[in-house]
Amino acid sequence: MTDLYTITKKMTDINQIQDEIIEEFAGMDDWMDRYAYIIEMGNSLEPLDESLKTPDNLIEGCQSRLWLDAQCHDGIVTYQADSDAIIVKGIVSMLIRVLSGQKAQDIVDADLYFIERIGLRDHLSPTRSNGLLSMLKNMKAYATAFAAMHN
Q1: Which of 8, 67, 79, 88 could form a disulfide with 100 if both were Cys (CB 3.0 to 4.6 A apart)?
Q2: Which entry of 21, 59, 62, 112 is annotated as an active-site residue?
Q3: Which residues, 6 or more positions from 49, have their beta carbon under 8 angstroms from its beta carbon?
């Protein structure tokens, strides 16, 4: 599914998007405001089709349920996800914003520094932190497989 957001995003590289997110969070000193913003991002995530909420798309390592689907067309990876937890949904929406619509190899090579810079890792419970690592691991694994197919 391609929309205007995805088309425009292809013109923006991973680091530019990370820098945009860092800038958005820079104006918020209070973590309650940051959590509210993360929840807002999750609420704006396009719902995942029920047919994609399968055991194969369920991410292991998350305390809540998180489904992740990845597709690759012409070397460009698109991700879709959904979660039954609002914070998790917000976190995965940021990862999708940064990684979806990018070349598979660019995703594999990406240094996702925005997570540290906005202080997210420091403000997550250990189980949510493990969930974040699982999300990243799965997104990178998909990209690695797609990159191998296109080389």
Answers
A1: 79
A2: 62
A3: 80
